[in-house]
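User: structure tokens for this one?
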Amino acid sequence: MDERLVLLRNHLKNCLNNLTEEEIKVIVQKTDGFSGSDIIISIRDACFESNRKLEKANYFQEITIENKLKYKVVDDNLSQASGVKKMKFIDIDPNEILVPEITIVKKTNFL
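Assistant:
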């Protein structure tokens, strides 16, 4: 278990995520029996999920963070929400995109 915990921590630090220490431990438990390579591949795949979500997105919500305009991916069913615009990520300045973080829900989908 300790080896998997170290492996997960080391590889997740290179990937935008909001996983808590407790969630990382849950992942460690769910990966019992996985090889180191299996775990690394799962983490890489989870990291690319943010890119896939950006590429597939049809709607982004304008939000302001620290007086700067940012765009956050929203699901199609929220297209009528305030501040939501139909657009593709290639139409947005890269500095204005909020990249979706990995969450425990997304991560466990790979296990």
